[in-house]
Amino acid sequence: MKAELRRDIEFMQPIKNETIFDAAIKLFQQKWKAKECPPINNFIDYFINEWYMSNKGWFEGFTIGYPSSNNALEATNGTIKSLYTFRERLPVGEFLSVLEND
Fold it and tell me: Where are the alpha helices (DSSP H) in 1-102?
């Protein structure tokens, strides 16, 4: 049952349209509430409150035209750090020597 619940959530993530996403959430809620299982109902209530009402921005259609992850930004930051911060990673012993001398 957990795997099916997870698949249903993963199915909704790539939806590209907010109207369709809203309909999918309603169907998701109806399907799982119909099971009449208290632990599942508790999770569905949590999921709807936390990941639909409060933090709806996890599906692809929430911000059309923007990336859904910050991987590109992190790669750019990594490049800037490696080129312009002049950081050098040292073994612990060498690092302690640098600290003592500076």
Answer: 2-12, 18-33, 38-48, 71-84, 92-101
Whether the pTM exceeds 0.85: the reply is no
Whole-number Å distance between alpha carbons of 35 and 38: 9
| pLDDT one digit per residue (tens) for the chain, 102 residues | 889 999 999 999 999 999 999 999 999 999 999 999 999 999 999 999 999 999 888 888 877 776 666 776 787 888 888 777 777 778 888 888 888 886
Tokens (6 digits) for 9: 């959530």
Cα-based torsion angle of the residue sequence 56, 57, 60, 65 in order, rounded to the nearest 10 degrees: 140
- Nearest by Cα to 15 from 66, 67, 59, 63: 59
* CA 72/CA 78 separation, integer angstroms: 10
